[in-house]
């Protein structure tokens, strides 16, 4: 939840009037005025629209009712609010550009407890996949994990326990997001927007995807080498 004071401060950073913000976000100027004066409790969708437009223009909201200009190339999000903000970023990017989203390192039991706090993301992605046929989402989790919470729009594969590490990362477009669920509050999400770094992780994912196997299919066995003797 962001405060009216934060919205006013964010506008100040950008030199926007309420009409400017209304035009860019699709939120009525009168509603923005009520939010800033803290006369209403805004809906989640309204807040998401405001957070998105500020995020797209280089402004982020931080702890203790703070507002700042985002560090160049790196964004750090913390806790359930940060997770919600992250999902908005993933959704908005996918809605605009489509393409492949890659997800590696998921402990679905732990992750599902967090994603249940923002259930609208799952619903939004399910509907978006129906609208756009150019979206693919691949997720690699630990062998034996059957808590597949988003089969409506994800394709899952298993990687062996020896290779699995429960530090998830997302790749979407030229963005790489690394999620740490061991922090307090959890999670801490670090989004890198450096194409070279994202490309390196993309190649790592593609190699892991080839090594991983479909949970619904028997694991492939290596063919024994034939003797030339």
Question: What features would you describe in this structure?
Answer:
The protein is α+β, with helices and mostly antiparallel strands and about 230 residues long. It folds into 2 domains: about 5-70, lambda repressor-like DNA-binding domains (434 Repressor (Amino-terminal Domain), Orthogonal Bundle), CATH 1.10.260.40; about 75-210, 2-Layer Sandwich (Endonuclease, Chain A), CATH 3.30.870.10. The model is unreliable at about 225-229 (pLDDT under 50). The chain has helices spanning about 5-15, 20-25, 30-35, 45-55, 80-95, 110-115, 120-130, 195-210; strands at about 60, 65-70, 75-80, 100-105, 135-140, 155-160, 170, 175-180, 190. The protein has 8 helices and 9 strands. The longest helix has 19 residues, at about 80-95. Helix 2 (about 20-25) packs across helix 3 (about 30-35), helix 4 packs across helix 5 (about 80-95) and helix 5 runs parallel beside helix 7 (about 120-130). Strands 3-9-8-7-4-5-6 form a 7-stranded mixed beta sheet, sandwiched between helices. A two-stranded antiparallel sheet has the order 1-2. Helices cover about 40% and strands about 20% of the residues.
Mean of all residue-level pLDDT scores: 86
Total domain units: 2
CATH superfamily of the largest domain, by name, is: Endonuclease Chain A
Main structural class: alpha+beta
Succession of helices and strands = HHHHEEEHEHHEEEEEH
**Overall spatial form:** elongated
Q: Sheet with the most strands?
A: 7 strands, mixed
For the largest sheet, list the strands in their spatial order.
Answer: 3-9-8-7-4-5-6
What assembly state would you assign to the polypeptide chains in this entry? single chain
Helix content: 40-55%
Number of strands: 9
From the alpha carbons, calculate the radius of gyration and give it in angstroms. 20 Å
Query: For the terminal residues, how far apart are their CA atoms?
Result: 72 Å
Return residue spans where pLDDT drops below 50 for at least 5 consecutive residues: 224-229
Strand content: 15-25%
Give me the CATH architecture of the largest domain, please.
2-Layer Sandwich
